[in-house]
Design a protein that fits this description.
Helix content: 25-40%
Bound molecules: 3-acetylpyridine adenine dinucleotide
Largest sheet: 8 strands, mixed
Strand content: 15-25%
Shape: globular
Number of helices: 17
Structural class: alpha/beta
Number of strands: 20
Radius of gyration: 23 Å
Low-confidence stretches: 1-8
Distance between the termini: 25 Å
Length: about 550
Amino acid sequence: MLKSTKQSNQVANYDAIVIGAGFSGLYTLHRLREAGFSVRVFEAGEGVGGTWYWNRYPGARCDSESIYYNYTFSEELYKEWTWTSRYPEQPEILSYLNFVATKFDLRRDIQFKTRVTAAHYNEENNKWHVYLNDGTSVSAKYFITGVGCLSASNVPNFKGINHFKGEWYHTGHWPHEKVDFKGKRVGIIGTGSTGVQAIPVIAQEAEHLTVFQRTPQYCAPARNHPYDPEYIRQAKENFSEIKRQMRESQGGQPVIPSTKSALEVSPEERKRVYEEAWEKGGLGLFTAYYDVTINEAANETVAEFVRTKIREIVKDPKVSQNLLPSYFYGTKRPIIDTNYYETYNRENVTLVDVKKAAIEEITPQGLRTTEAEYELDTIVFATGYDGMTGPLLKIDIRGKDGVSLKEKWAGGAQTRTYLGIANAGFPNMFMITGPESPSVLSNMPVSIEQHVEWISDCIEYMREHGLETIEANVEAEEAWSKHCREVAESTLFTKTDSWYTGANIPGKPRGFLIYLGGVGAYRQKCTEIAENGYEGFALM
Ligand code: N01
């Protein structure tokens, strides 16, 4: 245990300090400022947008439908903004967030190009002291993290990476200016949601694209298309109903969950349903039957359906064989694609199975696996993130007695939170979409809004009741974490290596840090806790 030794002479003091100017930070700033609190947001980027500021890689778009992937706190805002297509592209989402920042005059309280390096709780004055990478510090009564779940990039520690003579990029830190692939031999490592989006786009431009795949993926066509103005008009007209349905749903989108098992229908009926979902595009296969992610036999029916599609689409049988996934469908993020499998029919694309022949080294000229050497001009790392805990543990966050979050969570081995919002030992600190909340297994803006509203209501409650501190009880935290684990263990999710379980980061303890009970049920639980005077918290 370390006591904070950092000192600062002159610190500006706020009611609340927020890290991050993405969906979370922007709304937190707006909401708290409207309630009369002084707020300062610190953002590492030069502009607003968070995930959508950093992820500028070719093909980047969202897999939630546009009309649901936005704020719903303001009907006026919802009606003022018009999305152009079913699945929004990164530049359009970034424009939307800039529009929001301008509409609500948010930038004046955001300090850009500033990274929070540490945040220490001072028990003498019940304040958070927050340290910035420019050497200054500030303090606040409340410390709120809006750091995102996927902002700590994972660049595998390949031997030789620093000697590579070409250019290399991680998709999560893509340059603002266009990366030119024309005439280049490009290698891409990783076939998750990001790789699957980038591969077809890069293949169109590069002289040759080599895809280094460790785990084949289940994808379904996105069938993206421009929106019909009439469809948008109806969505705007039905704003209140759409908002209600999203908030009460399982995954944050107005999808009515199936009550049927995949095993109770005939194979013909199942195929009809899967074909319909495939033709419609999007995540319909995932929600076609209620037991797809809880029953192995039900899961296999979808898995085999997608494998059959891959065999049909990819012409070279050797390549299609290498593209066939075998883990439980949906237990890694289900992917929606545009021409992903089709891309392997191109002459200028090669698939390399790095599970069979692992990457040994990045060489000055390219990349070597245990079987062959590949000459490359550019390498793209679509290798993902240290999810959920990574972004928080990058910051030296210390609560009571100087105990760090890293120590409390034992580096991730014993991550415990209360509702994914609060931590025992860390008074007046709130996490937006923290570990053990629905977050990434939901439509993010819906979960973000719910957290922001809960947190700002709580801070208003504190003011109304003249309270100084709020802190999660250890028992409440233990019970919530236990509940999260039990829900996860009743599914197939925990049986697959993925970033959901932490298995993608060497040395990261295995767990399951996302609440699978659903957005609607979770919201109800959080509301009840608040209505019961913040049950499970100590308020002083
Ligand atoms: O990251 P990932 P991502 N050697 O972790 C491979 C969201 N998102 O950036 O599967 C070789 O899923 C790794 O292989 P394996 C979404 O929530 C959303 O693609 O671990 N390969 C895998 O293929 C998503 O789930 C959208 O065996 C290595 C890939 O790199 C999350 O972000 C779009 C390796 C990483 O896949 C993360 O997606 C994009 C190594 N050492 C992202 N290390 C949409 O909304 C890793 N890999 C559409």
